[in-house]
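Supplementary Methods. Inverse-folding protocol.

Structures were first reduced to a discrete structure-token string of length 148. This string, shown here, constituted the complete conditioning input.
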């Protein structure tokens, strides 16, 4: 399982954000990225529950969710290609397509920060620090590129 996560993460890291996954229609890309963020948020939220003491710290559960988050983080970024700014209800702001370099930089901060979660997951204090840093990158992108 771990090696599968690692292989997917390595393969995803080699794909630049600009090499968009192929989607037949803009709607498909929008659905894909929304689904990816939903699943990413679910697993990130489980780490958050542990960090914030809503559920007890469990190294195995933390490691599992951290691995998933670090892998899933790569997915939505492949689905913001040209022409996917409209076509389905989306909270993605036009700024993403107006200034793709700025969006890419913010996105990569999130990939980098979530990529540190697996190594931190074995220690509650380290996890708390890494989780806080990752959450700040989520928020940074939401503030600039997502409508409320
Ligand atoms: C989550 C989640 C997000 C981020 C963000 C952090 O658990 O679903 O979008 O954390 O709220 O600021």
């Amino acid at each position: 399982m771990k090696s599968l996560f690692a292989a997917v993460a390595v393969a995803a890291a080699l794909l630049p954000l600009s090499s968009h996954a192929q989607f037949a229609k803009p709607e498909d890309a929008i659905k894909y990225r929304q689904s990816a963020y939903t699943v990413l948020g679910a697993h990130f939220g489980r780490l958050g529950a542990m960090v914030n003491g809503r559920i007890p710290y469990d190294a195995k559960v933390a490691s599992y969710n951290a691995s998933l988050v670090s892998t899933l983080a790569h997915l939505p970024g492949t689905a913001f290609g040209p022409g996917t700014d409209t076509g389905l209800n989306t909270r993605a702001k036009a700024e993403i397509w107006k200034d793709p370099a700025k969006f890419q930089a913010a996105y990569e901060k999130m990939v980098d920060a979530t990529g540190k979660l697996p190594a931190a997951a074995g220690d509650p204090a380290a996890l708390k620090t890494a989780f806080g840093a990752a959450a700040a990158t989520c928020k940074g992108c939401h503030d600039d590129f997502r409508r409320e």
